Every structure is written in structure tokens, then in C-alpha cells.
Amino acid sequence: MTRTLVQIQEMNGDFNYSEPPESKVDSIINDVISELSQVQVTIDIKDRTFPSKVSKKIKHNQLRNNRSIVLKYKSYSSHIESAYGTVEKNVVNGKQTALLILHDMYEKALHKFNIDVWEPDMDAIKQHADEIIDDIRTQLTKFLYKSSNINFTKEQMALGVDIVIAHAFVECYVLENPNDTD
Predict the structure, then answer these.
(1) Which site from 1, 41, 78, 101 is most exposed, i.e. has the minimal number of CB atoms within 10 Å?
(2) Which residue in 101, 100, 109, 168 sits closest to 138, CA to CA?
């Protein structure tokens, strides 16, 4: 067993170690993932077709490596809408709130690549599209693990995060809508 030794030389004032308050709060997205983890879905990994609207958005943003999350989402598309519907019975504007959180994460990812949120440079977005999705995945996973309502496995979490991000992509909260930019 490996242990970490911390030596504190001097302490002035009070020291209080407790769980951060955000770890005691539920997450809407965890509720959605929990709902998704209960549905039976078969994913056909050989079917690499997208609806034309989604295909256009993938090409517009030049998404490459993370196209696979959109394929996973395709099998869950009706289920995620149902999951958000279930959540909204307990949380007013639950779906909108979750999607806005994902949009905020998208904006943070854009800042990391020095891309202006208000006037996004499509060449820069195309260059970093997969890295932007990866950054959102990292942000979202950290966010969800800090909440109190995790009642599913790590594997379900990983799949659920991908599905939620892909849904936000299709709904145009993540990456750029080809109809909105030049």
C-alpha cells in the first residue's frame, strides 16, 4: 500500500477539513444518466450513418475522433428525452438547466483554446473540435463526481457522459451550428 506523507511546518488559525458543500448536492445530469442506465439498448457499432442534420454539423465542426459519441447517442436519443422528461417532474426547467451547464463548459473549453465565445473562429474550432469535446468530457465528469446522487457504475457514468454531451452537440449547445456561422 502506498501512502502520502504530508508534513505541516506551521499552522496559524483554525483548520477545518470537511467535504465541500457541492458534494452534498444532487446533479440533474446524474439523474438523467441514472435513468439512461436503466434502459435496455443495443448499439450497432457497424452502423456509422447519421441523420443528415447531424452529419452536416459533424462536417461543419470537423469532428473526427469524437464522432463515436454521436453514434452512441443515436441509440439513446429517444431515451434521453424521456429521461429529461422524468427529471423535469422534480426539477423545473431541468433539461434547459443541464444544457446551459454544458454550454458553459463549452465556453470554458473555447477559452482554453483562445477562441472568442461571441465571435468564434470556425477555423480554430475545426482545428480543436475533438479536443474541445474531450475538455467538456473532463469538466463534466469532475462536476458529476462531486455531486451526491451517483447510483450507477463507472462504466454507466462514462457512457452516460458521452451520451449527454452528444445530445448537447445535436441540440447545438456544444460546438457550432452550421446555420449560425459563415
Answers:
(1) 1
(2) 109
- Integer Cα distance of 121 and 141 in angstroms: 27
> Is 173 within 8 Å of 103 (Cβ atoms)?
yes
SS3 per-residue string spanning the chain: CCCCCCCCCCCCCCCCCCCCHHHHCCCHHHHHHHHHCCCCCCCCCCCCCCCHHHHHHHHHHCCCCCHHHHHHHHHHHHHHHHHHHHHHCCCCCHHHHHHHHHHHHHHHHHHHCCCCCCCCCHHHHHHHHHHHHHHHHHHHHHHHHCCCCCCCCHHHHHHHHHHHHHHHHHCCCCCCCCCCCC
The one-letter amino acid code at 168 reads: A
**Tens-level pLDDT at each residue, the chain (182 residues):** 566 777 777 777 766 665 665 556 778 899 999 999 999 988 777 877 788 889 999 999 999 999 989 988 888 988 999 999 999 999 999 999 999 999 999 999 999 999 999 999 999 999 999 999 999 999 999 999 888 888 888 999 999 999 999 999 999 999 998 887 55
